[in-house]
Amino acid sequence: MSTFKAPKGTYDLLPPDSATYLAVREAISAPLRNSGYGYIETPGFEDVALFARGVGESTDIVTKEMYAFETKGGDQLALRPEGTASVLRAALEASLHKAGNLPVKLWYSGSYYRYERPQKGRYRHFSQVGAEAIGAEDPALDAELIILADQAYRSLGLREFRILLNSLGDQECRPVYRAALQEFLRGLDLDEETRRRIDINPLRVLDDKRADVQKQLTDAPVLRDYLCDACKAYHEEVRALISAAGVVFEDDERLVRGLDYYTRTTFEFVHDGLGSQSAVGGGGRYDGLSEMIGGPALPSVGWALGVDRTVLALRAEGVELDLPSPTSVFAVPLGEEARRALFGVVTRLRQDGVAADFAYGGKGLKAAMKAANRSGARYTLVAGERDLAEGVVQLKEMESGEQTAVPLDSVVAEVAARLA
Ligand code: AMP
């Protein structure tokens, strides 16, 4: 062990578990890549003001959880706590929305940072795969994203997740609801910080997880009763399209999410095997965000799914992903001459696209065979002086133990044929 440990609230992805993380990223992004979403990568840090304005000055993410710092050059930056603001910033900066093909559909995958109180499922460094569809107001786009997330989770074998759906209204109807909610909340018995929240962001109070707060919220006005006709029709269409796709969801009028930029459609994916950190992903429509960060009006919708929690959900359901063994062939040389010969064979196998590995470090037969076993290889190639004198190597099928002598100069073709 070294003097150093991974920083609090973080963990390292190590083999063999790390293969599951890669597979999860792959599974989440596959439906997106198949649906017209192009890959985008943005820096791990941005101007702190982008998040303050985009995510919201009063949100926990901005006030408490952001890794903000000043550079030696005097710039105020922050490690990204989420993806949407950065992706929209990048799309606007590159004028992707002016290329005449809206919506601009983008997907991303990367690390995010929040200074949170660490617990199971909640880390200070975590990974998301996300998708954003920028510049179109169309219920089918909202539906598409929800359907693709459902498809991604299902392709991983997850079953015990639920989709919660709500509409947060728009600039016309939300203010009316907001005022009604504020009036209701002011009549409750709440602590000072929560009272302050009533003024700044009353919808967030609905999200309060404390039982004594939730108890008082039973009769709170619900946004659904305040939605304007346009928002109502939009939401009904989203619901109809998702249902027609056979995707099951639950209406949850309490769902507000922790970011300020959402309008109309909002949704969350929760998994029932995860305890308190049950949200595996979430998203929604953010029609006002572009203008909030200085861009033109660009109605958009997106989601981000957490990779870490998706892996926890797989474990909670006992799902074992069917991951191919990383190594197909393992070479075990006995002696100096065999080392050169088999190293050449391994190199040629790799050039032919066969996953091959080698017993390095001059191991004896026993230790080398142990390594071959551990590698999960289907075949082992063993060669000693006598084999080489006869111009052969021993090709052993690990499962049956069956061993055949194969001429050295045809072993690459023989292995490739057997694996095909
Ligand atoms: P949010 O933008 O907060 O809704 O986050 C979207 C998804 O990212 C969540 O549903 C989680 O799966 C994941 N996520 C957010 N914060 C954390 C965290 N601190 N640790 C692990 N995963 C997180």
TrEMBL record:
Q: Which domain of life is it from?
A: Bacteria
Q: Name one GO biological process term.
A: histidyl-tRNA aminoacylation
Membrane-crossing segments per the record: none
- Which Gene Ontology terms cover its molecular function? ATP binding; histidine-tRNA ligase activity
Q: EC number(s) on record?
A: 6.1.1.21
The reaction(s) this protein catalyses = tRNA(His) + L-histidine + ATP = L-histidyl-tRNA(His) + AMP + diphosphate + H(+)
- Entry GO terms, CC: cytoplasm
Q: Which Pfam families match?
A: HGTP_anticodon, tRNA-synt_His
Would you indicate the residue range of the signal peptide?
none
Q: Which residues form the Aminoacyl-transfer RNA synthetases class-II family profile domain?
A: 1-324
Tell me the InterPro entries matching this sequence. Answer: aa-tRNA-synth_II, aa-tRNA-synth_II/BPL/LPL, Anticodon-bd, Anticodon-bd_dom_sf, His-tRNA-ligase, HisRS-like_core, HisRS/HisZ, HisRS_anticodon
Q: Where in the cell is it found?
A: Cytoplasm
Where L-histidine binds, per the record, is at 82-84, 114, 128, 132, 257, 261-262
Which keywords belong to this entry?
Aminoacyl-tRNA synthetase, ATP-binding, Cytoplasm, Ligase, Nucleotide-binding, Protein biosynthesis
Question: Where is this protein chiefly located?
Answer: cytoplasm
Q: Which NCBIfam families does the UniProt entry name for this protein?
A: hisS
Family assignment from sequence similarity: Belongs to the class-II aminoacyl-tRNA synthetase family.
Assembly and interaction partners? Homodimer.
Q: Please report the name of this protein according to its UniProt entry.
A: Histidine--tRNA ligase
Naturally occurring in which organism (per UniProt): Streptomyces albidoflavus
Q: What is the lineage of its organism?
A: Bacteria, Bacillati, Actinomycetota, Actinomycetes, Kitasatosporales
Gene from which the chain derives: hisS
